[in-house]
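Supplementary material to the annual report.
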Amino acid sequence: MNATTRTENGRLVIAVTGRLDSITSPEFDAQAVEWKAEPRNIAVLDASGLEYISSAGLRSLLALAKRLMDDNSQLVVCGARGLVEEVLRMSGFDKLIPMYGVIDDIPAPGA
Amino acid sequence: MCQNDDRRVFQADADSLPAVLTFVLEAAEKAGVPLSRLPHLELAVDETLTNIIRYAYRGDFGKVEVRVTADDRDYMVEFADRGAAFNPLSAPPPDLSTDLANRKPGGLGIFFTRQMVDDVEYRRDEDRNVLTLVMRLP
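Predicted assembly:
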């Protein structure tokens, strides 16, 4: 698992790659506390390089999404594919965290 | 008559996951489980091992015996541990409909396991929990 952040058009973009499971999620959680989103703007989790997620990884995403909501931001996911997309939909996370195909599909703020 | 039957004992901790996965996935491929279903099996095995570590051994040291068998119809993975009696199939299903603020993360492991394979069976066998994952062969 590797997570890197950047700012794109005023939005926090978190690119996570590899495996998010019971082994790697503590490391993800430790990094996630440092991530600050712009209030009233979305934060994007770029999952296009994420190969695997288990319930432990979903727990981490849920905690991140809740914390961003408390900070008056909103987490969205783009690029989830294969098992990762399947798992997010099966668990109903797609109803909690909006999912998009590619980053350009995400509506502009206020749109 | 089993076409293959193999078993191996692992330490029940998260660090064993890669070795357990290699053992189970290689046997699955040999048994004829389609490649497209291997990610499903991987998730089911991960969640099963995680539950054994968390709920059967509750952080204590312990071992888990993993047995893989196949016949003409099914590929089966059996996990046996000597931890506290724990039947994951009796856990209430997760509530998937609540909003983000009220969403609880628990219960998803066994939910995924049941979704990913064709059948899940549990039995208490003397002092052992025995959980079996079944995948139908095409």
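Residues 2-103 of chain A form a domain with the Transcription Regulator spoIIAA fold (CATH 3.30.750.24).
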